[in-house]
Amino acid sequence: MPTDVAATSSPGPLAGVRVVELAGIGPLPFACMLLAELGADVIKVDRPSGGGLGVPPELDLLNRGRPSVALDLKTAAGVETVRRLVDRADVFVEGFRPGVVERLGLGPEVLLERRPALVYGRMTGWGQDGPLADTAGHDLTYLAASGVLHAIGPAATPVVPLNLIGDFGGGAMYLVAGVLAALYSAEVTGRGQVVDAAVVDGSAHLSTLIHGLLGAGAWVDARASNLLDGGAPFYGVFATGDGQHVAVGPLEPRFYAEFEARLGVAEPLPDRNDVASWDDLRDRLTAVFVTRSRAEWVAAFEGSDACVAPVLSLREAPDHPQLAARATFETRQGVVQPAPAPRFSQTPGRLTTPPVVVGHDTRAALLSWGIEDVDELIESGVASQRP
Predict the structure, then answer these.
(1) Is the pLDDT of residue 316 over 70?
(2) Cβ proximity of 109 and 37 under 8 Å
(3) Does residue 1 register a pLDDT over 60?
(4) Residue 167 is a catalytic residue
(5) CA distance 275 to 2
(6) Which of 182, 212, 231, 366 is most buried, taking the most CB atoms under 10 A from its CB?
(7) pTM for the whole thing?
(8) Is pLDDT of 222 > 60?
(9) Active site residue 138
(10) What is the pLDDT of residues 335-386, one digit of tens each?
(11) What are the residues whose beta carbons fall under 8 Å from the beta carbon of 53, sequence distance 6 or more?
Protein backbone atom coordinates (compact mmCIF):
# COMPACT_ATOMS: atom_id res chain seq x y z
CA MET A 1 0.00 0.00 0.00
CA PRO A 2 1.39 3.47 -0.79
CA THR A 3 2.65 5.49 2.13
CA ASP A 4 2.55 9.18 2.87
CA VAL A 5 5.06 10.97 0.67
CA ALA A 6 6.52 14.32 1.69
CA ALA A 7 5.76 17.08 -0.80
CA THR A 8 8.78 18.30 -2.70
CA SER A 9 9.84 21.91 -2.16
CA SER A 10 10.65 22.33 -5.85
CA PRO A 11 8.14 24.50 -7.71
CA GLY A 12 6.27 22.86 -10.55
CA PRO A 13 6.66 23.82 -14.22
CA LEU A 14 3.74 26.27 -13.97
CA ALA A 15 5.16 28.16 -10.98
CA GLY A 16 4.26 31.83 -11.30
CA VAL A 17 1.07 31.21 -13.31
CA ARG A 18 -2.05 32.49 -11.54
CA VAL A 19 -5.46 30.96 -12.21
CA VAL A 20 -8.93 32.04 -11.08
CA GLU A 21 -11.32 29.08 -11.08
CA LEU A 22 -15.04 29.74 -10.99
CA ALA A 23 -15.96 26.47 -9.30
CA GLY A 24 -17.93 23.88 -11.24
CA ILE A 25 -18.26 20.11 -11.46
CA GLY A 26 -16.71 17.25 -13.43
CA PRO A 27 -14.01 18.18 -15.92
CA LEU A 28 -13.46 21.74 -14.67
CA PRO A 29 -12.18 20.90 -11.17
CA PHE A 30 -10.10 18.05 -12.60
CA ALA A 31 -8.41 20.48 -14.99
CA CYS A 32 -7.75 22.98 -12.21
CA MET A 33 -6.47 20.24 -9.91
CA LEU A 34 -3.94 19.32 -12.59
CA LEU A 35 -2.89 22.95 -13.13
CA ALA A 36 -2.34 23.33 -9.38
CA GLU A 37 -0.31 20.13 -9.17
CA LEU A 38 1.90 21.43 -11.97
CA GLY A 39 2.70 24.48 -9.85
CA ALA A 40 0.08 27.07 -10.82
CA ASP A 41 -1.35 29.28 -8.06
CA VAL A 42 -5.04 28.45 -8.42
CA ILE A 43 -7.72 30.21 -6.35
CA LYS A 44 -11.12 28.50 -6.41
CA VAL A 45 -14.16 30.76 -6.13
CA ASP A 46 -17.05 28.79 -4.64
CA ARG A 47 -20.65 29.65 -4.03
CA PRO A 48 -21.27 30.08 -0.29
CA SER A 49 -23.81 27.24 -0.45
CA GLY A 50 -21.19 24.91 -1.89
CA GLY A 51 -21.87 22.06 -4.28
CA GLY A 52 -19.79 19.10 -5.43
CA LEU A 53 -20.37 15.35 -5.22
CA GLY A 54 -22.15 15.15 -1.88
CA VAL A 55 -19.21 13.37 -0.24
CA PRO A 56 -17.25 14.59 2.80
CA PRO A 57 -15.10 17.57 1.72
CA GLU A 58 -11.85 15.77 2.55
CA LEU A 59 -12.77 13.01 0.06
CA ASP A 60 -13.76 15.29 -2.82
CA LEU A 61 -10.30 14.79 -4.28
CA LEU A 62 -10.84 16.91 -7.39
CA ASN A 63 -10.73 19.93 -5.07
CA ARG A 64 -7.28 19.15 -3.70
CA GLY A 65 -4.33 21.49 -4.12
CA ARG A 66 -6.00 24.89 -4.05
CA PRO A 67 -7.76 27.18 -1.57
CA SER A 68 -11.53 27.71 -1.47
CA VAL A 69 -12.90 31.24 -1.40
CA ALA A 70 -16.66 31.63 -0.88
CA LEU A 71 -18.15 34.64 -2.68
CA ASP A 72 -21.77 35.58 -3.31
CA LEU A 73 -21.84 36.32 -7.03
CA LYS A 74 -25.43 37.53 -6.78
CA THR A 75 -23.98 40.72 -5.30
CA ALA A 76 -22.18 43.45 -7.23
CA ALA A 77 -19.37 43.41 -4.68
CA GLY A 78 -18.87 39.67 -5.12
CA VAL A 79 -18.62 40.00 -8.90
CA GLU A 80 -16.27 42.94 -8.57
CA THR A 81 -14.07 40.91 -6.23
CA VAL A 82 -13.71 38.23 -8.92
CA ARG A 83 -12.81 40.93 -11.43
CA ARG A 84 -10.13 42.21 -9.05
CA LEU A 85 -8.73 38.70 -8.76
CA VAL A 86 -8.67 38.43 -12.55
CA ASP A 87 -6.68 41.67 -12.69
CA ARG A 88 -3.90 39.68 -10.99
CA ALA A 89 -4.39 36.45 -12.96
CA ASP A 90 -3.06 34.86 -16.12
CA VAL A 91 -5.96 32.45 -16.55
CA PHE A 92 -9.69 32.47 -15.78
CA VAL A 93 -11.73 29.27 -16.16
CA GLU A 94 -15.43 28.55 -15.87
CA GLY A 95 -17.76 25.67 -16.66
CA PHE A 96 -21.27 27.08 -16.85
CA ARG A 97 -23.74 26.88 -19.72
CA PRO A 98 -23.23 29.52 -22.43
CA GLY A 99 -24.45 32.94 -21.37
CA VAL A 100 -24.53 32.34 -17.60
CA VAL A 101 -21.19 33.96 -16.83
CA GLU A 102 -21.96 36.83 -19.22
CA ARG A 103 -25.10 37.57 -17.22
CA LEU A 104 -22.99 37.69 -14.08
CA GLY A 105 -20.79 40.33 -15.68
CA LEU A 106 -17.77 38.04 -15.96
CA GLY A 107 -17.88 37.24 -19.66
CA PRO A 108 -14.81 37.29 -21.89
CA GLU A 109 -15.51 40.77 -23.32
CA VAL A 110 -15.49 42.27 -19.82
CA LEU A 111 -12.47 40.39 -18.48
CA LEU A 112 -10.32 40.62 -21.62
CA GLU A 113 -10.87 44.36 -21.71
CA ARG A 114 -9.53 44.59 -18.16
CA ARG A 115 -6.75 42.06 -18.77
CA PRO A 116 -5.88 41.86 -22.50
CA ALA A 117 -3.39 39.01 -22.08
CA LEU A 118 -5.86 36.87 -20.10
CA VAL A 119 -6.46 33.25 -21.13
CA TYR A 120 -10.20 32.68 -20.71
CA GLY A 121 -10.94 28.94 -20.48
CA ARG A 122 -14.49 27.66 -20.97
CA MET A 123 -15.49 24.06 -20.20
CA THR A 124 -18.85 22.74 -21.42
CA GLY A 125 -20.31 19.54 -22.75
CA TRP A 126 -21.72 20.74 -26.08
CA GLY A 127 -19.58 23.85 -26.62
CA GLN A 128 -20.40 27.53 -26.79
CA ASP A 129 -22.55 27.33 -29.92
CA GLY A 130 -24.67 24.93 -31.96
CA PRO A 131 -28.27 23.74 -31.49
CA LEU A 132 -27.54 21.85 -28.24
CA ALA A 133 -25.28 24.44 -26.61
CA ASP A 134 -27.94 25.52 -24.11
CA THR A 135 -29.14 22.02 -23.20
CA ALA A 136 -28.06 19.71 -20.40
CA GLY A 137 -25.97 16.63 -20.93
CA HIS A 138 -23.54 14.28 -19.25
CA ASP A 139 -20.50 12.24 -20.20
CA LEU A 140 -22.67 9.43 -21.57
CA THR A 141 -24.68 11.67 -23.90
CA TYR A 142 -21.58 13.43 -25.22
CA LEU A 143 -19.94 10.07 -25.96
CA ALA A 144 -23.12 8.91 -27.67
CA ALA A 145 -23.26 11.93 -29.98
CA SER A 146 -19.55 11.78 -30.81
CA GLY A 147 -19.78 8.18 -32.04
CA VAL A 148 -17.42 6.91 -29.35
CA LEU A 149 -20.04 5.14 -27.24
CA HIS A 150 -21.18 3.10 -30.24
CA ALA A 151 -17.74 1.51 -30.46
CA ILE A 152 -17.49 0.42 -26.80
CA GLY A 153 -18.89 -2.84 -25.48
CA PRO A 154 -20.06 -6.26 -26.66
CA ALA A 155 -21.83 -6.71 -29.97
CA ALA A 156 -25.32 -6.68 -28.50
CA THR A 157 -25.28 -3.24 -26.87
CA PRO A 158 -22.91 -0.42 -25.91
CA VAL A 159 -21.75 -0.36 -22.31
CA VAL A 160 -21.81 2.60 -19.93
CA PRO A 161 -18.12 3.46 -19.41
CA LEU A 162 -16.72 5.42 -16.51
CA ASN A 163 -16.58 9.14 -17.25
CA LEU A 164 -12.86 8.96 -17.95
CA ILE A 165 -13.17 9.20 -21.74
CA GLY A 166 -15.53 12.17 -21.99
CA ASP A 167 -15.38 14.34 -18.87
CA PHE A 168 -11.71 13.91 -18.11
CA GLY A 169 -10.10 12.77 -21.37
CA GLY A 170 -12.19 14.67 -23.89
CA GLY A 171 -13.00 17.54 -21.54
CA ALA A 172 -10.51 18.39 -18.80
CA MET A 173 -7.35 17.38 -20.64
CA TYR A 174 -8.33 19.39 -23.71
CA LEU A 175 -9.07 22.39 -21.52
CA VAL A 176 -5.61 22.09 -19.95
CA ALA A 177 -3.95 21.69 -23.35
CA GLY A 178 -5.86 24.69 -24.68
CA VAL A 179 -5.01 26.84 -21.67
CA LEU A 180 -1.30 25.99 -21.91
CA ALA A 181 -1.23 26.69 -25.66
CA ALA A 182 -3.03 30.00 -25.17
CA LEU A 183 -0.64 30.94 -22.36
CA TYR A 184 2.29 30.43 -24.69
CA SER A 185 0.57 32.48 -27.38
CA ALA A 186 -0.16 35.28 -24.89
CA GLU A 187 3.47 35.34 -23.82
CA VAL A 188 4.59 35.71 -27.44
CA THR A 189 1.91 38.12 -28.67
CA GLY A 190 0.67 39.84 -25.52
CA ARG A 191 -2.90 38.95 -26.51
CA GLY A 192 -5.16 36.63 -24.58
CA GLN A 193 -8.04 34.64 -26.02
CA VAL A 194 -10.98 32.39 -25.26
CA VAL A 195 -10.44 28.62 -25.11
CA ASP A 196 -13.71 26.84 -25.94
CA ALA A 197 -13.26 23.27 -24.66
CA ALA A 198 -16.25 20.97 -25.23
CA VAL A 199 -16.46 17.36 -24.08
CA VAL A 200 -18.15 16.35 -27.34
CA ASP A 201 -15.31 17.88 -29.39
CA GLY A 202 -12.54 16.30 -27.33
CA SER A 203 -14.22 12.90 -27.29
CA ALA A 204 -14.53 12.96 -31.06
CA HIS A 205 -10.89 14.07 -31.38
CA LEU A 206 -9.76 11.14 -29.24
CA SER A 207 -11.21 8.79 -31.86
CA THR A 208 -9.03 10.16 -34.70
CA LEU A 209 -7.10 6.90 -35.13
CA ILE A 210 -10.29 4.88 -35.41
CA HIS A 211 -11.71 7.24 -38.04
CA GLY A 212 -8.53 6.79 -40.06
CA LEU A 213 -8.85 3.02 -39.88
CA LEU A 214 -12.55 3.27 -40.77
CA GLY A 215 -11.77 5.37 -43.84
CA ALA A 216 -9.11 2.89 -44.91
CA GLY A 217 -11.50 -0.04 -44.65
CA ALA A 218 -9.49 -1.46 -41.79
CA TRP A 219 -12.20 -0.95 -39.17
CA VAL A 220 -15.71 -2.42 -39.10
CA ASP A 221 -18.28 0.05 -37.75
CA ALA A 222 -19.73 -2.52 -35.37
CA ARG A 223 -18.76 -3.38 -31.81
CA ALA A 224 -16.58 -6.40 -31.00
CA SER A 225 -15.52 -6.76 -34.63
CA ASN A 226 -11.99 -5.31 -34.63
CA LEU A 227 -8.55 -5.70 -33.12
CA LEU A 228 -9.00 -3.11 -30.37
CA ASP A 229 -12.68 -3.42 -29.43
CA GLY A 230 -12.84 -6.97 -28.13
CA GLY A 231 -13.38 -8.59 -31.50
CA ALA A 232 -9.95 -10.21 -31.57
CA PRO A 233 -9.61 -13.02 -29.00
CA PHE A 234 -5.96 -12.09 -28.47
CA TYR A 235 -6.96 -8.62 -27.26
CA GLY A 236 -9.52 -9.14 -24.55
CA VAL A 237 -10.35 -10.16 -21.01
CA PHE A 238 -10.65 -13.73 -19.73
CA ALA A 239 -12.01 -15.16 -16.48
CA THR A 240 -9.65 -17.17 -14.32
CA GLY A 241 -10.38 -20.19 -12.15
CA ASP A 242 -10.85 -18.13 -8.99
CA GLY A 243 -13.45 -15.80 -10.46
CA GLN A 244 -10.94 -13.05 -11.25
CA HIS A 245 -9.80 -11.84 -14.68
CA VAL A 246 -6.69 -11.26 -16.75
CA ALA A 247 -6.22 -8.86 -19.66
CA VAL A 248 -4.58 -10.38 -22.74
CA GLY A 249 -3.16 -8.15 -25.48
CA PRO A 250 -0.27 -9.65 -27.49
CA LEU A 251 -1.11 -7.96 -30.79
CA GLU A 252 2.34 -8.18 -32.39
CA PRO A 253 3.41 -11.61 -33.74
CA ARG A 254 6.56 -11.83 -31.60
CA PHE A 255 4.57 -11.03 -28.45
CA TYR A 256 1.90 -13.52 -29.43
CA ALA A 257 4.55 -16.21 -29.90
CA GLU A 258 5.74 -15.64 -26.35
CA PHE A 259 2.14 -15.67 -25.15
CA GLU A 260 1.57 -19.07 -26.75
CA ALA A 261 4.78 -20.44 -25.27
CA ARG A 262 3.89 -19.25 -21.76
CA LEU A 263 0.28 -20.41 -22.03
CA GLY A 264 1.56 -23.96 -21.86
CA VAL A 265 -0.97 -25.80 -24.04
CA ALA A 266 0.04 -28.99 -25.81
CA GLU A 267 -2.33 -28.79 -28.78
CA PRO A 268 -1.70 -25.87 -31.20
CA LEU A 269 -4.15 -22.99 -31.00
CA PRO A 270 -6.30 -22.01 -34.02
CA ASP A 271 -4.60 -19.63 -36.45
CA ARG A 272 -5.08 -16.12 -35.11
CA ASN A 273 -4.65 -14.64 -38.61
CA ASP A 274 -7.78 -16.41 -39.79
CA VAL A 275 -10.67 -14.22 -38.70
CA ALA A 276 -13.05 -17.11 -39.31
CA SER A 277 -11.29 -19.02 -36.52
CA TRP A 278 -11.54 -16.24 -33.93
CA ASP A 279 -14.55 -17.76 -32.20
CA ASP A 280 -12.74 -21.10 -31.88
CA LEU A 281 -9.63 -19.38 -30.58
CA ARG A 282 -11.66 -17.46 -28.03
CA ASP A 283 -13.33 -20.66 -26.85
CA ARG A 284 -9.93 -22.37 -26.46
CA LEU A 285 -8.46 -19.48 -24.50
CA THR A 286 -11.55 -19.25 -22.31
CA ALA A 287 -11.21 -22.93 -21.45
CA VAL A 288 -7.49 -22.61 -20.71
CA PHE A 289 -7.64 -19.55 -18.45
CA VAL A 290 -10.20 -21.05 -16.08
CA THR A 291 -7.75 -23.85 -15.26
CA ARG A 292 -5.63 -21.59 -13.05
CA SER A 293 -6.11 -18.74 -10.64
CA ARG A 294 -5.31 -15.15 -11.52
CA ALA A 295 -2.20 -15.25 -9.33
CA GLU A 296 -0.99 -18.41 -11.06
CA TRP A 297 -1.38 -16.80 -14.48
CA VAL A 298 0.44 -13.69 -13.30
CA ALA A 299 3.31 -15.92 -12.19
CA ALA A 300 3.28 -17.79 -15.51
CA PHE A 301 3.62 -14.59 -17.55
CA GLU A 302 5.79 -12.63 -15.11
CA GLY A 303 8.67 -10.73 -16.71
CA SER A 304 7.61 -11.59 -20.25
CA ASP A 305 6.55 -9.62 -23.33
CA ALA A 306 3.35 -11.65 -23.62
CA CYS A 307 1.26 -8.57 -22.70
CA VAL A 308 -0.81 -10.27 -19.99
CA ALA A 309 -1.80 -8.41 -16.83
CA PRO A 310 -4.15 -9.04 -13.91
CA VAL A 311 -7.38 -7.04 -13.90
CA LEU A 312 -7.03 -5.36 -10.53
CA SER A 313 -9.71 -3.60 -8.54
CA LEU A 314 -9.36 0.05 -7.58
CA ARG A 315 -8.27 -1.02 -4.09
CA GLU A 316 -5.78 -3.55 -5.44
CA ALA A 317 -4.12 -1.29 -8.04
CA PRO A 318 -1.87 0.71 -5.65
CA ASP A 319 -0.15 -2.52 -4.60
CA HIS A 320 0.80 -3.57 -8.14
CA PRO A 321 4.62 -3.82 -8.17
CA GLN A 322 5.05 -1.41 -11.08
CA LEU A 323 2.72 1.22 -9.66
CA ALA A 324 4.20 0.84 -6.19
CA ALA A 325 7.74 1.25 -7.53
CA ARG A 326 6.78 4.46 -9.31
CA ALA A 327 4.69 5.77 -6.38
CA THR A 328 1.77 6.15 -8.76
CA PHE A 329 -0.48 6.40 -5.71
CA GLU A 330 0.11 8.35 -2.51
CA THR A 331 -1.63 8.32 0.83
CA ARG A 332 -2.49 11.74 2.23
CA GLN A 333 -4.51 12.30 5.38
CA GLY A 334 -5.31 8.60 5.32
CA VAL A 335 -6.76 8.71 1.79
CA VAL A 336 -5.16 6.69 -1.02
CA GLN A 337 -5.17 8.77 -4.21
CA PRO A 338 -3.36 9.04 -7.55
CA ALA A 339 -0.18 11.09 -7.52
CA PRO A 340 0.31 13.95 -10.00
CA ALA A 341 1.18 13.07 -13.58
CA PRO A 342 3.14 13.36 -15.81
CA ARG A 343 6.64 13.34 -14.30
CA PHE A 344 9.17 16.17 -14.70
CA SER A 345 12.90 15.81 -14.12
CA GLN A 346 13.57 19.39 -12.93
CA THR A 347 10.21 20.80 -11.82
CA PRO A 348 8.11 17.91 -10.52
CA GLY A 349 4.45 18.30 -9.83
CA ARG A 350 3.30 17.63 -6.29
CA LEU A 351 0.39 17.16 -3.99
CA THR A 352 0.07 20.12 -1.69
CA THR A 353 -3.06 20.83 0.33
CA PRO A 354 -5.96 18.39 0.75
CA PRO A 355 -9.49 19.29 -0.35
CA VAL A 356 -11.26 21.57 2.11
CA VAL A 357 -14.75 22.71 3.00
CA VAL A 358 -16.14 25.58 0.91
CA GLY A 359 -14.89 28.92 2.21
CA HIS A 360 -12.14 27.41 4.34
CA ASP A 361 -9.47 29.76 2.95
CA THR A 362 -11.46 32.90 2.10
CA ARG A 363 -9.55 35.38 4.25
CA ALA A 364 -6.04 34.02 3.72
CA ALA A 365 -6.39 33.39 -0.01
CA LEU A 366 -7.92 36.78 -0.83
CA LEU A 367 -5.23 38.55 1.18
CA SER A 368 -2.50 36.58 -0.60
CA TRP A 369 -3.96 37.76 -3.92
CA GLY A 370 -3.86 41.40 -2.85
CA ILE A 371 -7.52 41.87 -1.87
CA GLU A 372 -7.15 44.09 1.20
CA ASP A 373 -10.79 44.73 2.19
CA VAL A 374 -11.45 41.10 3.12
CA ASP A 375 -12.89 41.83 6.53
CA GLU A 376 -15.40 44.23 5.04
CA LEU A 377 -16.43 41.63 2.46
CA ILE A 378 -16.92 39.02 5.18
CA GLU A 379 -18.81 41.38 7.49
CA SER A 380 -21.18 42.39 4.68
CA GLY A 381 -21.88 38.76 3.76
CA VAL A 382 -20.35 39.05 0.29
CA ALA A 383 -17.60 36.63 1.34
CA SER A 384 -17.88 33.73 3.76
CA GLN A 385 -15.11 32.40 5.98
CA ARG A 386 -15.73 28.87 7.26
CA PRO A 387 -14.00 27.46 10.32
Answers:
(1) yes
(2) no
(3) no
(4) yes
(5) 44
(6) 366
(7) 0.94
(8) yes
(9) yes
(10) 999 999 999 999 999 999 999 999 999 999 999 999 999 999 999 999 999 9
(11) 25, 60
